[in-house]
Specification:
With 119 residues, the chain is mainly β. It contains no helices and 11 strands.
């Protein structure tokens, strides 16, 4: 079965850090771009950042620049999102998706992991 599974979410105080994981099964992440999304309570899902198979990184929101960094570990078939200096407005469900390139159709979705940032 082709799937993505996110983990690493939890509760953290403002200013803290978390590292989310996006593990793939049933296919190899080496050739795919991975986009991270966030859905805050009561809001629509927004794209945060994408890492290409070449390790090029694109950011889709200014709030992620300088604080969030995606990376990949191909031998582990896993992509990470390192999140630093977390803010209360970063609270939400974080999910990852796979596509052949960052601008391509999203082909595989994870179920999401909840991040709660308290002040």
């Amino acid at each position: 079965e082709v799937q993505l599974v996110e983990s690493g979410g939890g509760s953290v105080q403002a200013g803290g850090s978390l590292r989310l994981s996006c593990a793939a099964s049933g296919f190899t992440l080496d050739y795919y771009a991975i986009t991270w999304f966030r859905q805050a309570p009561g809001q629509e899902r927004e794209g945060l950042s994408c890492i290409e198979s070449t390790d090029d990184i694109a950011y889709y929101t200014d709030s992620a620049k300088g604080r969030f960094t995606p990376s990949r570990d191909n031998p582990k078939n896993t992509v990470y999102l390192q999140m630093n200096r977390l803010r209360a407005e970063d609270t939400g469900v974080y999910s990852c998706t796979a596509s052949l390139e960052c601008s391509g159709d999203l082909e595989v979705w994870g179920q999401g992991t909840l991040v709660t940032v308290s002040t």
